[in-house]
Amino acid sequence: MDAIIENLPRFIDAFLVTVRLLVVSGIGALIIGTLIAGLRISPVPALRGFATVYTEVIRNTPLTLVLFFCAFVMPQLGVRLDYVVAATIGLTVYTSPFVAEAVRSGINGVSVGQSEAARAIGLRFGQTVGLVVLPQAIRMVIPPLINVLIALTKNTSVAAGFAVLELVAVSRQVIQFNGDATIPILVAVAAFYLLITVPLGQAANYLERRVRVLR
Amino acid sequence: MTSVLYDVPGPKTRRLSLLFSIIGGALILAGLIGIVVFLSLPRLNAAGVEQPGMFDPSRWDILADRAMWRSIWRGLSATLQMAGVAAVLALAVGVVLSMARTARSAFIRIPAIVVVEFFRGMPVLLMMLFILLVFSSGQFWAGVGALAVYNGAVIGEALRSGIASLPRGQGESGLAVGLTPLQVRFSIEYPQAFRQMLPIIIAQLVVLLKDTSLAYILGYQELLNIGLKQGPTTFGPTYLFTLFFVVWAVYLAVNLSLSAIARVVAKRTASGRGGGLKARRAARVVSQLAGAGMSGASTPLPVTGVRADPTAGGPPSADGDTH
């Protein structure tokens, strides 16, 4: 227990690094993912193809490999970034196809009658999507998106292997000097993660219930 | 090709779409060419010595080197070994957890719920670290243990929702003909739930395979470690870029073929039931779980999330192209 209290400032710093990774790459992934989802449903075949390939390739690549590229291969290509920035970019890229899939399945989940009706009164593709489908899709998309964010929270831990001092990396360092307190330290780190994931999960459950009432 | 979102295109739209396709394609192509040109520029290393560009033959001659492929194979087999052992254990853990979660006694059910939720909410890397440091089990078993527990919790949830989605009559009639509750579980409910959830389970196994690369951080000698950490030291640091592509291609090949199997299985189970609701549900669930490649899902999987399957009337591809 002493080891935790002594090192509390370090843990809090590390927690903030984790939160920063989560927030920045979460926002980035939401933006890129939505764009990709837009491409994926667009009427233009070339864009659809590009989005499909992007989604497939990234989704089947291990996150560790993506982060390895950002942290160790990019410098060899002459792009030298701070490790935190590299990890943020890696997490953003890795998360974006999952966001895209969540958004796309939300759009597919809006009942067919809605878009048929919109088309029947003469709305164009952009109007159908923008005015009728998306406003409904967003509601259905929020719970799965929160699940993606929860997964992202857990995935930030992978950055520990790539010179980013977030929770797991710091816990490893602290354990080196406090071998007798291994279990309490790891449990404390787990608690920090639960501090993010539990409220997010509650929010997802709450929103899911709200949405169901509304529909 | 057709979608409810837009009409079957007429001649004018087709021309416009073609135009956009060409513009879009050109932009993508320009981007790719830009990347290629950028990569092929020679660059200076830390010591200020000029290095050849990324497409210089001197960087790629390693592809003809048998020793390189041997070490990649060594890495791949270590990865597959870990994934295989972890997959078997994860299935076992999944069955046990789903049994516990559907137990009649609250003394078993509630702790099981807590355990499942806890394991699903923890980063796999943290669990690996825990097993490695607390049980000093060695890197292999630390990786296997964490992967088995985490994916076991996810698979357990899938099995539970599979059982929950069976018609009540299945279990009731089993009891009526005099089977014990345990016999009902194993000879009636699990075979059906397992079959129905097979696509999900395979999708989760892809996740498991991807996650074996986390063991690299612990120092386990798997594909990423052997290919990208040891490779450049044995064959020379200039080959890092090439080796990265080789490792990437190997991962993609393995994962994409597993995903393809999942798709075939999803279709199989689909046609086996006269293309009924269950089939479509399975296909949907694959798409959701494909998303759970990130598998963070803290809300219980499908059943509740399935809704009346709004895409049912949509284009047939809506379910099929989940990958």
Question: Topology of this protein?
Answer:
The complex is a heterodimer of chains A (215) and B (323).
Chain A: H1 2-6, H2 8-41, H3 45-59, H4 63-76, H5 83-109, H6 112-120, H7 125-155, H8 167-177, H9 182-214
Helix pairs in contact in A: 2-3, 2-5, 2-8, 3-5, 4-5, 5-7, 6-7, 7-9, 8-9
Chain B: H1 11-40, E1 43-44, E2 50-51, H2 57-60, H3 66-101, H4 106-121, H5 124-134, H6 139-164, H7 168-176, H8 181-211, H9 215-218, H10 223-235, H11 240-272, H12 277-291, H13 317-320
Antiparallel strand pairs in B: 1-2
Helix pairs in contact in B: 3-4, 3-6, 3-8, 3-10, 4-6, 5-6, 6-8, 7-8, 8-11, 8-12, 10-11, 11-12
In DSSP terms, counting alpha (H) and pi (I) runs of 4 or more, how many helices of chain A?
9
Order of helices and strands of chain B: HEEHHHHHHHHHHHH
Anisotropy-based shape of chain B: flat
Number of strands of chain A: 0
Strand content of chain A: under 5%
Largest interface: A-B, 75 and 70 residues
| Arithmetic mean of pLDDT of chain A | 87
Query: How would you describe the shape of chain A?
Result: flat
Rg of chain B computed from alpha carbons, rounded to a whole number of angstroms: 24 Å
Query: Any idea of the CATH class of chain A?
Result: Mainly Alpha
- As residue ranges, the low-confidence spans of chain B are 295-323
User: What is the number of strand segments of chain B?
Assistant: 2
- For CATH, the homologous superfamily of chain A is named as MetI-like
Q: What is the annotated CATH architecture of the domain at 76-227 in chain B? A: Orthogonal Bundle
- Structural class given helices, strands, pairing of chain B? mainly alpha
The H-and-E topology of chain A, N to C, reads as HHHHHHHHH
Largest sheet of chain B: 2 strands, antiparallel
Q: Give the structural class of chain A.
A: mainly alpha
- Kindly report the average pLDDT value of chain B: 79
Uncertain runs of chain A with pLDDT below 50, 5 residues or more?
Answer: none
